[in-house]
């Protein structure tokens, strides 16, 4: 079983592919999908969709864990744009028959650190420890995606730590 965690964003989307082996998570790939802010919004969505679909196929992913994001009411345009980004990921997941789970950031932080208000660095440390990563995770978005994948797999009874 392979899962992909997704921390969605139009400028940068964090992603992480985690494989299950003997009830443990093994991080296979993590990084950020970036788009050029000078491009048309539709072109940026297209780029995210294509790259995400490549990841699904390359890694034979069966499960997507997506951050259930919130936006501030005073930024309605950002809400609409983020909704479109999430729609692109959900469409790709549906086209490849992936199971989809959404988790809110507080839930992920509590599961990994015991603290719903944990900092990004605390989450990254916990993720690195659980996955036994030899290197520090340099991107907060990729770290969040790894955290999402781990917690989603745990909630599904597939991974323990």
Descriptive report:
The protein contains 5 helices and 5 strands; from the N terminus they run E-E-E-H-E-H-E-H-H-H. By secondary structure, it is an alpha/beta fold. It has a 5-stranded mixed β-sheet. A hairpin with a 2-residue loop joins strand 2 (12-21) and strand 3 (24-34). The model has no long low-confidence stretch (mean pLDDT 96).
For the biggest sheet, the summary is:
5 strands, mixed
Which structural class should the secondary elements be placed in? alpha/beta
Going across the biggest sheet, name each strand in turn.
Answer: 3-2-1-4-5
Q: In CATH terms, what is the fold-level topology? A: Nucleotidyltransferase, domain 5
* Assigned CATH superfamily: Ribonuclease H-like superfamily/Ribonuclease H
Give helix % range: 40-55%
Provide mean pLDDT, rounded: 96
Shape: globular
The name of the CATH architecture is 2-Layer Sandwich
How many structural units, i.e. domains?
A: 1
Q: Can you count the beta strands? A: 5
Radius of gyration, in Å, reads 15 Å
Indicate the low-confidence ranges by residue numbers: none
Helical stretch tally = 5
Instruction: Please give the CATH class.
Output: Alpha Beta
- The helix/strand order is EEEHEHEHHH
Report the portion of residues in β strands. Answer: 15-25%
């Amino acid at each position: 079983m392979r899962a992909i965690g997704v921390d969605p964003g139009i400028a940068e989307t964090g992603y992480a592919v985690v494989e299950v082996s003997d009830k443990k998570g093994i991080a296979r790939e993590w990084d950020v999908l970036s788009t050029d802010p000078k491009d048309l919004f539709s072109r940026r969505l297209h780029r995210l969709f294509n790259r995400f679909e490549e990841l699904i196929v390359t890694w034979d992913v069966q499960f997507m864990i997506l951050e259930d994001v919130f936006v501030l009411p005073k930024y309605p345009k950002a809400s609409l744009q983020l909704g479109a980004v999430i729609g692109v990921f959900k469409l790709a997941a549906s086209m490849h028959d992936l199971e989809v789970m959404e988790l809110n950031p507080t839930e992920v932080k509590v599961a990994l650190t015991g603290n719903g208000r944990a900092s990004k660095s605390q989450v990254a440390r916990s993720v690195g420890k659980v996955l036994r990563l030899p290197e520090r995770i340099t991107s907060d978005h990729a770290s969040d995606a790894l955290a999402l994948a781990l917690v989603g797999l745990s909630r599904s009874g597939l991974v323990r730590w």
